[in-house]
Specification:
- This protein is an alpha/beta fold and 185 residues long.
- It contains five helices and eight strands, in the order E-H-E-E-H-E-H-E-E-E-H-E-H.
- It has one domain (8-58, 82-182): Isochorismatase-like (Rossmann fold, 3-Layer(aba) Sandwich).
- A six-stranded parallel β-sheet has the order 3-2-1-4-5-8, sandwiched between helices. A two-stranded antiparallel ribbon has the order 6-7.
- A hairpin with a 5-residue loop joins strand 6 (147-148) and strand 7 (154-155).
- This is Cysteine hydrolase.
């Protein structure tokens, strides 16, 4: 396992709205600290950082553009020179120019962190893998929320997280932890 000199860190939906209590119980309380560790590492090594911001089409969303929940959390504010991708659906590749940005920069490897594991992280990682990018998802730098399955059975955030990672592992991405990434240089 080796981290390429131009591997892109993709940080998904670290906006104020994701902290709203109405989203319910979550897992990985340390996820943001892991994301910040990776972000500091990327900035120090001058690798490309891509911030993904969700602009919801639904007025009742925590990411509706007309309220503060759509704004980045202060600790995840993009710096000059870092890329911003705005999306309206979970997949950060869908109608955003992300694929073009990566291809034009010669980036073949992406490291994905953020929220929610079962939604934007999973859909973005699936597309990245399908498009041929070497895709890593950092499980301890992602989190999700409790959710009922199709049959109405309540599932804990940890169960939802684990199933999403299981969906990705091996077929679309390689699932790793922060330490594996930080020691992959």
């Amino acid at each position: 396992m080796a981290l390429m000199a131009n591997a892109a860190l993709i940080i998904i939906d670290q906006q104020k709205g994701i902290l709203h209590p109405r989203l319910g119980p979550r897992n990985n309380p340390q996820a943001e600290e892991r994301m910040l560790e990776l972000l500091r590492h990327w900035r120090r090594s001058e690798r490309p950082v891509i911030h993904v911001q969700h602009l919801s089409r639904s007025e009742d969303s925590v990411f509706w553009p007309q309220q503060s929940g759509v704004e980045f959390q202060e600790r995840f504010q993009p710096l000059p020179g870092e890329h911003l991708i705005q999306k309206q659906v979970p997949d950060a590749f869908c109608s955003t120019g992300l694929e073009s940005l990566l291809r034009e920069a010669g980036i073949a490897q992406v490291v994905i962190v953020g929220v929610a594991t079962h939604n934007s992280v999973e859909s973005t990682a699936r597309s990245a893998g399908n498009l041929g990018f070497e895709t890593w998802v950092v499980h301890d730098a992602c989190f999700t929320f409790d959710k009922a399955d199709f049959f109405g059975h309540a599932r804990s955030a940890e169960e939802v997280h684990g199933m999403s990672l299981g969906n990705l592992q091996g077929e679309y991405a390689t699932v790793v932890d922060t330490t594996q990434i930080l020691t992959a240089d």
